[in-house]
Each structure stands twice: as C-alpha cells, then as structure tokens.
Specification:
The complex is a heterodimer of chains A (262) and B (366). Chain A is an alpha/beta fold and 262 residues long. Chain A has one domain: Alpha/Beta hydrolase fold, catalytic domain (Rossmann fold), CATH 3.40.50.1820. Chain A has nine helices and eight strands. Chain A has an eight-stranded mixed β-sheet with strand order 1-2-4-3-5-6-7-8, with helices on both faces. Chain B has 366 residues and is α/β, with parallel strands linked by helices. Classes of the chains: A alpha/beta (262), B alpha/beta (366). At the A-B interface, helix 7 and strand 8 of A face helix 4 and strand 4 of B. Strand 8 of chain A pairs parallel with strand 4 of chain B, so a sheet runs across the interface.
Chain lengths: 262, 366
C-alpha cells in the first residue's frame, strides 16, 4: 500500500485526505479507530486488483480536517459528501471496526449511495467483557496479537511513527466515537442494501457473540466467521477477508450459493 | 454393537465383508438391543456406543443412526455417544445429528467429540497429519452450530459454509455434556480451555494419572477446577461370583479370541497412521507407543488389572479396583465395556447384573 497515490478533496466544511487504487466498480473503505491502514498492509492493493478502492481518512483523523459533528452519523454525512464528490453513482462500502458505525449510518441515511455494505468486526454497539481467553491487554506486543493475531500479512511492519499515528487516532476515536449508538441500533431495520457481517472467531476486542445483533436486526445481512482470525481482519486474515469481500461485492445475493470454485 | 464370530478367522483390516450374513446381523442387532435394555433396567447411568469402521467388531459406522435407534429402546439411562470422529465427517451434519438424537431421547445425550483411533484415517482418506487441526476447527464449528441462535457462515481452513442454522437445537442447553479425549496433551489442554470433561479410554493407570494431572493443571491455568465428575476412565470389565471364576472365564476368552481376532490388521493400520503424523511432534511418545505396542502391554490378566486396563474379579475385588482408579486418576466416572467370555452373552449379562447390583452400590460413595 506504500506506493498508493495520496489525494486531498475539498467538501463542504473542510477537506478529506484519501488513497486511491485500482479501477472498476468503486469500493470505499472506512477505517477503524487507528485511522488510515498502515503502509505495510496489503489488503487495499489486493482489493484494487478488481475494484477502484478509495480509502478516505475520516474527519479528524490523519490529514483530514474536522467536518460536522463528532459523531458516527456526523462522520457518515461527511463520507456521503466524499462519495458524491468522487464517484458517479452508488458505491460498495467496506467498514472495519469503529468504521462500522459510520458505514451503517451511511446505509441508513443515504441508501442511494450504498450498493452493498461489508462491516468487518464492527464495534457499533455496547462492549461487554471479552469471553474466557480474553482479558486485559498487558503490553504493546499483546495489543499487536489482539489486533492482528499470530499470522498477520505485512509487506513491512508499521514504523514507530505510524504506531504513534495509530495511537493518536485511537485516542481521538475513543473520545468522540465510543458511544453505544442506541439510535443506530433502532434504525438497522431501515437498511435496504445487502450487508455482509464478517467476524474473526478469535476476536478479543469485540467478541464474536456481538455479531448476532447485526444478523438479527439488518434485513439482508449475511454473517460469516473467519475461523482463527483476530480483530483487524483485513490484516489478520488478508487472503480470506479479501476473497469474501470480493465475492460478496461481485455476486450480491448469490454470495450464499456455492460458486463451483470460481 | 458387534457382529459376533466369523465363520473363518480373519486377521487383516479392513475385514473383507464376504462373510457378512444377514441372519447373523439381525441376531447381532437383537443381542445388542437386549444388552442395552438390560443395562437400562439395571440402572446404569448411561449406555455408550462408539464410531468404528470396516470391521465386524463394531457395527456403528454412522454412530448417530444407532444412537437414534437406542433413544427409542433405552428409556432412563443417558446415551453416551463416544463419539463422532470429527475430522472424518461434516461438522454441521454432526451437530445436526447429535442435536436430533438429543431431541429424540428427551435430552439424554452425552457426547464425546473425538479424533478417533489412528486406523480410522484410512477409511475416508483423511491426511493423518491434518487430524489435530481439522479436529479443533470442527470442534469450534459444532459448538457454534449448537449455541449461536442466528444464521451464520464459516470460512475456515478446512470447512466452508455460507449458511448454518441447525434445527433442532439440542434439548440440553446450551449443549449436551461434552467429553474430550485426554490421550494427548493437545486434547487435555483443549478440554481444560473449553471447560469440558476429560475422557481417558483404553490407556493405563500410569498414563491416565499423568493425563488427569495435566488436565487439572491446565484447568487451573484457565481459572477453574474440574470435579471428579469431569474425569472419565474407560476400560474392559468382567465380574463373577468369585475371583477364581472371573479369571478362569477371562483366561478362556483370551485363549479363544486369537483365532477370530482382527487385532493384527488394526495394529498394523494404527502403526502406519501413527507414523504418518497423526500425533504430531508434541506427542511423539504416543507415536512410539503405537510402534511398540508390545512394550508395556499387560502380560497376564493380573497384570492388566494392576495396570488398570481391566476390571476383573468378584464384586468386592472389582469395587476395590475401582477405588484404586478413583484414587490414582481422580475419575468420578468409570465407563466399562463388559467382556463376554468365549462369546457367551449369558456370562456377559450375569457380569452386568453383578456389577449393577453389587459393585455400583459399593463404589457410589467413593
């Protein structure tokens, strides 16, 4: 991802920095608490083999200015403006972790802009203590394991500077986007786009049991567990994650049918 | 459920099925059901069955078919399915079938989720070196199929499903009692991590004691303490009025069994699969054990009793032997496979009756 072109676009109320890669149908990736994906992650490049992938830094993260309210629905409004400014029609939205609440709000508020939605280990609703095997994070190494698991895919490990950027973003996210989103929960039933909910069975940050609420409340949700994967699925289980996202975007409701090894 | 004696002795495995005779198979079925019904009448806590393949020694290739039939013949005892061999089957199908049998039995299923003996891996052409990782993934998938109440898909290393939502779910919530084999350290650790019972089958007293100690140690690390009810020890048994009679009957069985045994073929199959990575690096000692089965094997019936691989004697002696097992292994559950000396079903029924009426009351309070 290191070589991806970095761009800035002005929208009403400020500007958003973003990365762009590939061509084809547009996929907008909404990052989690840490901000723009680390340069050494490979999943954007992998997705870009099939799609035009746009990775905006959410308002207030990285080099994006603060725009509108510091809430998930406020961020969703800014993302809607970004999509209107960069794309000709509705897009596929892929939202990771804390980005999940923004993606879901976007699908609720602007169904005209969302062809399909993938929420990957979303943290939109109340956290509960992790199940047995979890426990508090004790060290930076432990945090890396909680986030990325035993076999993350990196082309290069995050630099100290990047790790500092991720910590700064995570603190900003916690201060402003850590709510329970009760209103969003009540409105999940309004979502009309097909939704894929992805979760790792070894997620210690957001337990996989939390995934039921999405399956239960979103009309067209398909929930998939990636066996053995931890929280940051695009990095912790890159090949399987990319394969599932690609398959869902390409095949829509036929995702649930065996494709004969395509 | 055993087929009984073959017309011509066979020592190979797989056993050619040319000697299969429908009439004898029906007699075997009737004898099997009669035995299970007797156990139920005698008040045994559970009756058990195990999945095995390609041999007249065990006619339960699809274990849940037999379990379903038993659920309608055995009315009080629990039905212990020991067990489906996870790496050999479809985990979702296994979850569905066990749940179905739990429904058919009114919530009386106990299930051991097992890897199976090494030789079973020659049946469905599964790579023995993948056995452990297939088992662990299947375990997680089955557990989630039983407990997750919303549809889900599964993207694993070995199993991929886009739609899972089993009906019925088990009657017992969240799951039927689960047992994991403790023959290897990996399994013992898994049982401790998952807070389920440990099953020790056809091993011996020193090895079982060590496995039980290891399991308790790992349980402690996972923040809980197993009770004696969490440790099961399974072995062969025979009881008669006196020690002399019991040993004499069993010695006659040992002499008669050689001609009809298929043990040699299975021993060789076990050896081949064990040497092909079945136990992995961590449990190399188990591979060695299957390479050299004669080493450390009991030399006599008395030796088998001493090693804890056989209960044999009068009711009083067998109760004492169980006391030793309980003390050394900490097992609160003893699962016995009754011998039928020289194929005598009557002797077996007598042994079961003596065990239920005289041994069980004596050991209940241990």
């Amino acid at each position: 991802m290191t070589d991806l072109p970095h761009k800035v676009i002005d929208i009403e109320g400020g500007s958003l920095g973003y990365l762009e890669a590939g061509s084809g149908e547009t996929v907008v990736y909404l990052h989690g608490a840490g901000g723009r994906p680390p340069a050494g992650s490979t999943f954007v490049s992998e997705l870009a083999k099939d799609f035009c992938v746009l990775v905006p830094s959410r308002p207030g993260f990285d080099d994006s200015s603060e725009i509108g309210k510091r809430t998930p629905d406020g961020a969703a409004a800014a993302v809607a403006a970004f999509i209107e400014a960069t794309s000709k029609g509705p897009v596929h939205v892929v939202a990771q972790s804390a980005g999940g609440a923004i993606g879901l709000w976007l699908a609720v508020l602007r169904p005209d802009l969302v062809s399909s939605l993938v929420v990957s280990a979303p943290s939109a609703f109340a956290h509960r203590p992790p199940p047995s095997g979890g426990g508090p994070v004790r060290s930076p190494q432990d945090l890396d394991k909680v986030l990325y698991g035993d076999r993350p895919t990196w082309s290069a490990l995050p630099t100290d500077e990047e790790q500092e950027r991720i910590r700064r973003n995570a603190a900003f996210n916690m201060q402003n986007f850590g709510g329970n989103n009760e209103e969003l929960l009540a409105r999940l039933g309004e979502i009309r786009a097909p939704v894929l909910v992805l979760w790792g069975t070894e997620d210690r940050l957001v337990p996989s049991g939390d995934s039921s609420v999405y399956q239960k409340n979103i009309p067209q949700a398909v929930r998939m567990f990636i066996y053995g994967a931890s929280h940051e699925l695009p990095i912790a289980a890159t090949a399987k994650w990319v394969s599932l996202v690609r398959d869902f975007i390409r095949r829509g409701e036929f995702f649930v049918v065996n494709s004969g090894g395509e | 459920m055993t087929y009984g004696r073959l017309r011509e002795p066979v020592s190979t495995w797989p056993v050619p099925n040319e000697q299969f005779e429908p009439e004898q198979a029906l007699r075997a079925r009737d004898a099997c059901f009669a035995e299970y019904e007797l156990a139920d009448e005698l008040g045994f806590d559970w009756v058990s069955l195990a999945e095995h393949h390609y041999s007249p020694g065990s006619l339960a290739p699809s274990i849940n078919v037999l379990a379903a039939a038993l659920s309608q013949r055995v009315h009080k005892a629990r039905i212990a399915i020991l067990g489906p061999l996870l790496p050999l089957g479809n985990p979702v199908r296994i979850a569905e079938e066990i749940a179905m049998v739990d429904n058919l039995s009114g919530g009386r299923v106990i299930v051991a989720l097992l890897r199976g003996a090494p030789y079973e891996y020659l049946v469905y052409n599964v790579d023995p070196a993948e056995s452990r990782s297939r088992y662990e993934e299947a375990w997680e998938l089955i557990y989630r199929a039983w407990t997750d109440t919303q549809p889900f898909g599964w993207e694993g290393r070995y199993y991929q499903f886009r739609n899972v939502s089993i009906w019925p779910r088990p009657i017992q919530q969240p799951t039927p009692p689960i047992i994991v084999s403790g023959s290897s350290k990996d399994s013992g650790e898994l049982a401790a991590r998952k807070r389920v019972a440990l099953g020790l089958a056809f091993t011996n007293l020193p090895l079982a004691s060590e496995a039980s100690r290891f399991y308790r140690e790992k349980a402690e690390e996972n923040g809980w303490q197993p009770t004696s009810e969490h440790v099961l020890y399974r072995l062969n048994a025979y009881v008669a009025e006196s020690d002399e009679r019991a040993f004499a009957d069993m010695n006659r069985q040992a002499e008669g069994r050689g001609a009809a045994s298929v043990g040699g073929g299975i021993v060789n199959a076990n050896r081949l699969v064990a040497a092909s990575g079945f136990f992995g690096q961590r449990d190399a000692n188990l591979t060695n054990r299957f390479q050299n089965l004669s080493e450390g094997a009991p030399r006599s019936l008395e030796d088998a009793v001493r090693l804890g691989t056989l209960l044999c004697g009068s009711p009083g002696s067998v109760a004492e032997q169980i006391g030793v097992l309980q003390k050394e292994i900490g097992c609160g559950v003893v699962e016995v496979s009754f011998a039928s000396p020289q194929g005598s079903e009557e002797a077996k029924r007598q042994a079961m009756t003596l065990f239920a009426r005289e041994v069980v009351p004596a050991v209940r309070g241990l």
